[in-house]
Design a protein that fits this description.
Chain lengths: 296, 289, 199
Amino acid sequence: MTSSFPGAAGAAWHAGEDLLASYAAGTAEAVDGWSVEAHLTGCASCRAALSAQVDPERLARNRSALLVRAAIGDGGRARRLLRRCGVPDHVVSLLAATPSLRGSWLGSVIAVVAVVAGEAAAVSYGWIPGGGLVAGRPGAVILAPFLLVAPLLVLAGVAAAFLPVFDPAWRLAAAAPFSGFTLLLVRAVCALAAALIPVTGAAFVLPGPGWLPVALLLPSLALSAAALAAATVMDPRAAAVTAAALWALPVLWLASAHVPLLIVAPDAQVACAAALCACAAVLYLRRDRFELGWMR
Amino acid sequence: MTLNVSTAAVRVEGLSRRYGAIRALDAVDLTLDRGITGLLGPNGAGKTTLLSILATVSEPDAGRVSVFGLDPADAAERVEIRRGLGYLPQELGYHRYFTVAAFLDYVAILKEITDRRRRAEEVARVLAVTGLEDRARSRIRALSGGMRQRLGIAQALLGGPDLLILDEPTAGLDPEQRLRFRELLSDLPDEPAIVLSTHQADDIAAICPQVIVLLKGKVQFTGTPAGLAGTAAGRVWAADERDDRAHLSWRGGDGRWRHIGDEQPPGAELVTPTVEDGYLLLSHAAGDR
Amino acid sequence: MRPEAGERDDAALLRAVARGDEAALAVLYDRHAGWLTVRMTRRCATPDLVDHAVQDTFLAVWREAGAYRGGGDVAAFIWGIGIRRLIDAIRREHGPRRQRWRAAEPETVVSAEDQVLAGIEHGRLGQALAGLSPELRGAIEATVLDGLTCAEAAVLLGVAEGTVKSRCHRARVALRAALAGQQAGTGGAAYDQEAWGTS
């Protein structure tokens, strides 16, 4: 059965060649297998002898794949969390290559929001002197900067998901079989969600109507959808700028008329919802534009 | 990755493309077979436009393209073409924060290799082919120009493409790097069809059995490098002095003057033309110089 | 075949890996991937799954090298990680609801531990095990059936680690002898004496 019998206790027991060979081939008996396995745990020379029996090409292949995976790394806590939540690994990696989902970008967004919202809050709570007192209605106009900036920050995050200036390797993505539209959507949706968090959070801090945090949702979505839909008919940079102007101009005009909150009034919300549906439809119908040469 | 490959990997008929008033490509017809084909021409000749159309990144204004017998104008066939493509654009950008391995992993995902382990194996394979295994963890911005070009080739090789499109892969490389690059191309496993563009004639002479000369958006020559050299037969002279009547005159590496012209300059002898001579003659004829 | 003096031992390699030394990971792989592959193959006959599990194991070693407290063989540490990764790989492949061991599926081989469990109730192995003294049997069950390291088994059994090792060794001697005795049809007594005779 085997050619190595254990000697008396105290003699060194090593797995003989035949035993190792049959173990490597999978033909060793269960007990012999246990013997070998328990022995290998403590004996480097038998481990080396066994390694020599394994297909070297297979070992080399796994070795280089291992070193590559170690080189790539698993990306840190955020990505590990996403993977554990069930997001497929390749989607996580694609998201990681989006500028507006990186810590530095989100940090900047938070900083801007903090400054704008903080200033508005400070003025309204009287911590710093400020203007905005008009006709006995303090506070409405001081919200104007925040109302202007917040959805634009969300738009910027979405724009970074599709503007070629933000993706240095966009030509590779264009020439690759992975669906351009899917890539865009995944990135845009995540960038949208990521930007909305600080924006909504800051809206809670601000004085103003209690529905302000929720009220920013539809305009942000509508703006982003408008930029994406416009990118199917015009140059993407022009599309982003156009969408930004579509928001900035009304806000500034209403602010100059001292009624900036009208931009998030119920009527405006309905208009945003309608715009969102229309743009989403256009985006879906013209999604092929994202598959071929739409970035000239 | 095997597609339906007949002898001709790529067929182009009547391809035209303009940017505003500039005609980048003007009714170009060509056929690319398996093996390495060089696309030779000066900057602005339309090489990049042609290659980006072949890589399905741009659309032509007119004309028909067929890659592996598939039509890039059709959405489904276009995806099929892309599955067999490897593309190195002229200005390949990298995200600043990418390491070599992470970048290749990213491109592998774009090439639809979704399984993490298969991706790692494929990345390891191309790193080995291009000799970049030791640099897997380096940041791309820390690489030298020659290594970045090798990385560009590595990403093009992911997925084992049947058609490799390389746009000015030797630009910015010093002569030694260019030499190593040529060796790399000649020794590729899987033997894909390769088309590379360059404005340096000695790249062509060294590795391309087929050459196409593109000048001002039109194909001026199709054939072998020897054939291209042969177009200047009887018109290349070497002398010790300048001759202003020659079409072109320049001092060669050996210190003697080289003239291309129809008339024999005084004191000059006829020499065997090189690929570069043929190319220069064609350029001159097309009015580029 | 013997590791040269001057090469780092496995524990030093693990410490280097914990510091982020990739070359140390490669050396660790070169030393341990062979037996890991074989040992996993004895539990799972699908080469792909084993390959994945081997890679996952060393990746986990790369990440968790700091968790090694120097209290046992490095090989045992690696196996402890490896068996978990193998189970993960099998579970991912075959889905969480399906049993790991189904006689109808040739891909998933019954593990050695389970073979033993099956044998204990009904087989000559059970008889052989029954012929062991309680100490030897305990050592076998702790280290083989439960897959514990000698250190862990030592804690469990309340004895020194060296004692666990020698007990396992003697138990294997006795088991093999008992099984051979059963096969040959002779009584086990003479062999048992031989086994008990060794200390």
